[in-house]
């Protein structure tokens, strides 16, 4: 059951990132006012980097960073120094500009993958509130690959959507790179699930997810439906270019 899903389309990746940065502050302020803190899970890849740059440039003093607990949706099994590291890139672009350390909970990509999936699962279980027998994030930021993967749940590993574990070890289908990922049930257990998707290479999958639903079950991103809150799709015009319905 998807309580609520909405779609917003922006002219360019920059306009999208600026709009979402503003929304991110609003949503964080609401959770901080209500609970005193906010639990956020970040994705990696290229799309969020523009958002992190805008947050680092314009929001250092206007967001209460010390009250945001940062986690990751997924991480590549590499050292933090690697430019492949989702944590490493977020640290380089954003966290290095803000003086916060103890509310950043990275997935330790350099650890043994199976052991790290267990360790991170235990961390989430002890740090986050639990509903539906799974940890609950307030905000989860997702991207989507041009194969319809999200987090590190790839089309050839759809079982990770239904896993009863909190984190699992995934394998990138072409590079063979191991990754630690949240499972679909944890992602869907979140209150605000926000996709940030840009670029023409995503347009075909977006069209199938929104307008050819019987074609879209093979895409992991199509299975992201919040059981507790809402899914908001932020697209740029290129990613939304094949949609018939105009938003
Ligand atoms: C990762 C991400 C992954 C990403 C998509 C989209 O670790 O790579 O979590 O799910 O969001 O691959 O990546 P782009 O933003 O680079 O298109």
Task: Please give a quick description of this structure.
The protein is 31% helix and 20% strand. The protein is α/β, with parallel strands linked by helices and 247 residues long.
Write the layout of secondary structure elements.
Blueprint: E1 5-10, H1 13-35, E2 38-42, H2 47-58, E3 68-72, E4 74-76, H3 86-93, H4 113-127, E5 130-131, E6 134-135, E7 139-142, H5 159-162, E8 167-171, E9 178-182, H6 184-188, E10 192-197, H7 203-211, E11 230-236
Parallel strand pairs: 1-11, 2-3, 2-7, 7-10, 10-11
Antiparallel strand pairs: 4-9, 5-6, 8-9
Bound molecules: 6-phosphogluconic acid (6PG).
6-phosphogluconic acid binds near residues 149 and 150.
Bound molecules: 6-phosphogluconic acid
Helix percent band:
25-40%
* Total E-strand runs: 11
Largest beta sheet, briefly? 6 strands, parallel
Average residue pLDDT: 96
Radius of gyration over all CA atoms, rounded: 17 Å
Which structural class best describes the helix and strand composition? alpha/beta
Tell me the distance between the termini: 23 Å
Give the amount of beta strand, in percent: 15-25%
Tell me the series of helices and strands, N- to C-terminal. Answer: EHEHEEHHEEEHEEHEHE
Number of helices: 7
Poorly predicted ranges: none
User: What overall form do the CA principal axes indicate?
Assistant: globular
Q: If strands are numbered along the chain, what order do they take across the biggest sheet? A: 1-11-10-7-2-3
């Amino acid at each position: 059951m998807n309580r609520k899903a909405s779609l917003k389309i922006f002219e360019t990746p920059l306009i999208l990132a600026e709009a979402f940065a503003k929304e991110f502050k609003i949503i964080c302020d609401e959770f901080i006012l209500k609970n005193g803190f906010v639990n956020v899970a970040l994705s990696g890849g290229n799309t969020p980097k523009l958002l992190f740059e805008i947050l680092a440039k314009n929001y250092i003093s206007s967001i209460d960073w010390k009250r945001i607990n940062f986690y990751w949706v997924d991480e590549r099994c590499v050292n933090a120094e690697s430019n492949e590291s989702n944590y490493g890139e977020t640290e380089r672009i954003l966290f290095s500009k803000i003086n916060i350390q103890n509310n950043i909970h990275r997935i330790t990509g350099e650890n043994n993958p199976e052991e790290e999936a267990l360790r991170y699962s235990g961390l989430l279980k002890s740090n986050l509130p639990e509903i539906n027998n799974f940890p609950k994030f307030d905000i989860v930021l997702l991207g989507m690959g041009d194969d319809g993967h999200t987090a590190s749940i790839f089309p050839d590993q759809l079982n990770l959507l239904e896993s009863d574990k909190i984190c699992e070890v995934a394998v990138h289908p072409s590079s063979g790179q191991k990754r630690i990922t949240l499972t679909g049930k944890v992602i869907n257990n979140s209150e605000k699930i926000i996709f940030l998707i840009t670029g023409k290479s995503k347009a075909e999958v977006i069209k199938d997810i929104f307008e050819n639903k019987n074609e879209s079950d093979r895409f992991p991103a199509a299975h992201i439906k919040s059981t507790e809150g809402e899914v908001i799709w932020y697209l740029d015009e290129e990613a939304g270019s094949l949609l018939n319905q105009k938003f």
